[in-house]
Amino acid sequence: MDTITAIVLGIVEGITEFIPVSSTGHMILTSKLLGYNDQDPTMKTFEVVIQLGAILAIALVYWRRILDLLGIKKIDSGQNRIAPHKKLNLLHVIIGIAPALIVAFFARDFIKSLFSASTVIWALVAGGIFMIFAEWFNKSKAKITAETIDDLSYKQAFLIGIYQILSVLWPGFSRSGSTISGGMLSGASYKASADFSFLIAIPIMVAASGYEMLDSYQNLTKDTLGLFAIGFILAFVVAYVVVLAFMKLIQKIRLTHFAIYRFILAIVFWLFIMR
């Protein structure tokens, strides 16, 4: 690894981690383009470290909500005073992350065997089709019962957790893509689905990254520390900006736009990598 690689991968991680385009897919494909083996132990440790940078960014964006869930600082809103029984709580989060964590724990080796450029390309296409369907269903067929994250029911949180399994079992499908789409299919608005997707990303990514770090911490040496720090900082800064921009422009950027991007990306990488 060199500085340029650390910069490129840090930026790619920050841009793609929380939008529905698959950060895993982008990391695998970008590594291929840069001529690196993404299964190399040092590279895998680097990916874990920069993912932690992205997690820190999302935690900073949602820090008030996190403190509220932990009972440390209450979020006071007009809606919550009127209907406190609708307010999001820690149980919603637990229900939302449990299915994916259970599957990931028991199928870890199988999931790792699926990490390849060809798998990701097909996942980009399948995930894009799924997102288009979810957006169409949400607009024309679904009865919206959760306009905001505080309106989500336990059933909707659980369904989102079930849909999240798609991204666990199919690298490149996109965790945010599956959860946002799953939320929209279960009757949540686009914004409520995105908010919940970003929020549950924190514990599930901390658990996954922490588990992986236990296997690869020995690659954190004084020779690699500088490059890892560059990637971590860039992933943090870029992810923070991207999430804020996404939530600000959420009414203008639809899932279909991301789906089209995924189709184009799949074609480009098939032409340059698979042929």
Automatic annotation (TrEMBL):
Catalytic activity entry? di-trans,octa-cis-undecaprenyl diphosphate + H2O = di-trans,octa-cis-undecaprenyl phosphate + phosphate + H(+)
Q: Name one GO molecular function term.
A: undecaprenyl-diphosphatase activity
Tell me if Chloroplast is a UniProt keyword of this record.
no
Family annotation (Pfam families):
BacA
Report keywords, A-Z: Antibiotic resistance, Cell membrane, Cell shape, Cell wall biogenesis/degradation, Hydrolase, Membrane, Peptidoglycan synthesis, Transmembrane, Transmembrane helix
Task: Give the matching PANTHER family.
Answer: UNDECAPRENYL-DIPHOSPHATASE
Q: What is this protein called?
A: Undecaprenyl-diphosphatase
| Gene that produces this protein | uppP3
